[in-house]
Amino acid sequence: MDAEKLRELDRRHLWHPYTAAAAAVAAHPVTRAEGVRLTLADGRELIDGMSSWWSAIHGYGHPRLDAAVRDQLGDMAHVMFGGLTHEPAVRLARRLAEMTGLPKVFLADSGSVAVEVAIKMAVQATGKSRLLTVKGGYHGDTFGAMSVCDPVNGMHHLFGGVLPAHVFADRPPADYGLRPGAPSASASRRRPAGPEISGGSSEPAIPGVSAEPAIPDEAYLRHLDVMVAQHAGELAAIIVEPVVQGAGGMRFYHPAYLRRLRELADEHGILLIADEIATAFGRTGEMFGCDHAGVRPDIMCVGKALTGGYLTMAAALCTEEVAERIGVLMHGPTFMANPLAAAVADASLTLLGERPWQEEVKRIEAALAEGLAPAAGAPGVRDVRVLGAIGVVETAEPVDVEKMQNVVMAHGVWLRPFGSLLYTMPPYCTGPGDLAAITGAMTAAVATLSP
């Protein structure tokens, strides 16, 4: 079909995410994805600055991952996981257990489902039904996951009357990562090293970029102490996104707050759930977001980049102790542990372990910080921040998505703004020229904002 026919049928039949059934803005048909580029039906090529919603960390059409799917397809595409098992699932579970230190692995269909399973694990293991989280968070769009998203400023306020009432601490102060365009050009990056939150190594400064202070907000730490103590008797678990609050606002917070939550969970006999759907597998500069604070959760959710963007799969992992307390876990997706997804996930994690992903992410971080510096202080811009392979421009007012998308597409880049955020999370293989194109498109889009 030609591009116009595709758009016409898409409008008639398809319902896209976070839109009305009759979307006001037409979707752009894609005919091919290779490397870091998307080819549209009208022939245009766009650099994908989104990694297909943060999942395609190796880019598109990687020969190793293509081969993993083809090889597995020669044996079987799927088999039920009730009473049966298979090598791809076993290999993947072993690898995840070794990477996380969490030996029990429940393979789920998506990130939201992994969060649902994690909540079920906590409820069954403790006999309690409430959770504590922080405002500004996002954990998915299914009902249990929605209940621990931001209740006021999140995407699910329409369902507030039917969701369980959980406990929400204040948002963590956004005091981590790099600030492009900050006045101090000589400040160096400081990250916590090992158990010492206030320690860490200094890295070469990026001109025009300052690091946030390595000293956490003591008032906020006391706030966490009070909130957990007040509700400890009714809490099954604390659930947070480690270090990065993703779709709830793309905010980066100090690892000390995560460490304090781990300490409070231990002190009060509460489980800690780390929602690593967006942060796992290197995106923040560490393999897992929890690594910034040197903590291990009782339950962890992973997804998105797990299969390298090839097939939908996620996982909820837990300790032996939690698994023993649960007994029979009452959850069983039809396509649980799909062999194709498990095979490509194992291949993707193998590839990640072989490639210099840490150097790649550092290179991306430096390029994003330098390239986005001109956006800092521009009219209509509230903040510019970078952490690992994540670059964010936060605007003072919600953006006109179609207008901003047209600007970045005119610069040969694909981004998907939302709310007051224009951001990028590019594949790790994105080269210097393409990174410059991404940041150039973002600064050009920012230049269209009204003062």
TrEMBL record:
Pfam families: Aminotran_3. The keyword Plastid does not apply. CDD domains: OAT_like. GO terms for molecular function: transaminase activity. It is found in: Cytoplasm. The modification N6-(pyridoxal phosphate)lysine is found at residue 304. It catalyses: (8S)-8-amino-7-oxononanoate + S-adenosyl-L-methionine = S-adenosyl-4-methylsulfanyl-2-oxobutanoate + (7R,8S)-7,8-diammoniononanoate. The record marks 18 as: Participates in the substrate recognition with KAPA and in a stacking interaction with the adenine ring of SAM. Pathway: Cofactor biosynthesis; biotin biosynthesis; 7,8-diaminononanoate from 8-amino-7-oxononanoate (SAM route): step 1/1. It is an enzyme of class 2 (transferase). Its EC number is 2.6.1.62. It comes from the Bacteria. Residues 178-209 are annotated as: Disordered. Keywords: Aminotransferase, Biotin biosynthesis, Cytoplasm, Pyridoxal phosphate, S-adenosyl-L-methionine, Transferase. Substrate binds at residues 53, 138, 304, 332, 416. Pyridoxal 5'-phosphate binds at residues 111-112, 275, 333-334. Its cofactor is pyridoxal 5'-phosphate. Homodimer. Catalyzes the transfer of the alpha-amino group from S-adenosyl-L-methionine (SAM) to 7-keto-8-aminopelargonic acid (KAPA) to form 7,8-diaminopelargonic acid (DAPA). It is the only aminotransferase known to utilize SAM as an amino donor. PANTHER family: ADENOSYLMETHIONINE-8-AMINO-7-OXONONANOATE AMINOTRANSFERASE. Belongs to the class-III pyridoxal-phosphate-dependent aminotransferase family. BioA subfamily. This is Adenosylmethionine-8-amino-7-oxononanoate aminotransferase. The lineage of its organism: Bacteria, Bacillati, Actinomycetota, Actinomycetes, Streptosporangiales.
